[in-house]
Amino acid sequence: MKTKIEIAKNWLPRYTGTSLEEFGNYFLLTNFNNYVTKFAEQFNCNVNGIGKPMQSATNNAGLSIINFGMGSANAATIMDLLLAKQPEGILFLGKCGGLKHSTELGHFILPTAAIRGEGTSNDYMPPEVPALPSFKLHKFVSDKVVAHNMEYRTGVVYTSNRRLWEWDDNFKEYLKKIGTIGIDMETATIFISGYTNQISRGALLLVSDLPMVPEGVKTEESDLFVTQKFVDLHLQIGIEAMTEIGAKGETIKHFTF
Q: Is pTM beyond 0.90 here?
């Protein structure tokens, strides 16, 4: 195996326990296995990859969902491996911390860009290259959020490799200074690796905690509340948006010169 595509075609089934032919042309990516099981229950399809690093499911409409795990390294891995399938579009359904007073638990954020604080994306593009979504894909997502009578926020999110930073007042002051609306661990990596691999990509982030204040730091109890109240809608919006893109057959890819 000498080329990137040859390696990806061999490794994607190895990581997911799913053959290339079983995957659809559109993908939802998530960090949480319950998103995959809920998807499989809704469409009465199998969950593949139990015991593997990544679990997945695919419905009859050609939409697949993959739980790739947590963190920028895993995000980069799945975006590289999906090159084997050359998907028409990918939407990341992630959770994030809300950093402004305008963000509350259960709000959705459609990032207009992501600050590359994770470092992983530097292996793909120089630091001066902005981490951006495919805006046409985001249009489908925003339409579905509005159709469910839900509000969403736009803005720049900060992607970090640091999972435990809520105690660090200096880092909090930095986040305030740069004016980011949310913080997560994957979005910038997905945007940059998608750009590198010429994959149309987007992110719909669910505000799951408010970590700028001590009482807003995520706990087991607060995470359970968010999961019970908002995760079903989060997943449903993703399903509807990516299904509509496939049904309309509209080109969403950014072409290079």
A: yes
Q: Six-digit token pair at 43? A: 């469409």
Q: Which residues contact 101 (CB under 8 A, 6 or more apart)?
A: none
Residue type at 147 in one-letter notation: A
pLDDT tens for each residue of 177-228: 999 999 999 999 999 999 999 999 999 999 999 999 999 898 888 888 888 9
Provide CB contacts within 8 A for 219, sequence distance 6+. Answer: none
Q: How far is residue 106's CA from residue 244's CA, in Å, rounded to a whole number? A: 24
HSE-CB at 208 with a 13 A cutoff on CA atoms is 22
Q: What is the pLDDT of residue 252?
A: 60
CB-CB contact of 31 with 72 (8 Å):
no
* CA–CA distance, 222 with 216 (Å, rounded to integer): 9
Domains identified in the chain and CATH numbers = 4-248 (3.40.50.1580)
DSSP letters of 152-176?
A: EEEEEEEEES-S--TT-HHHHHHHH
DSSP 256: P
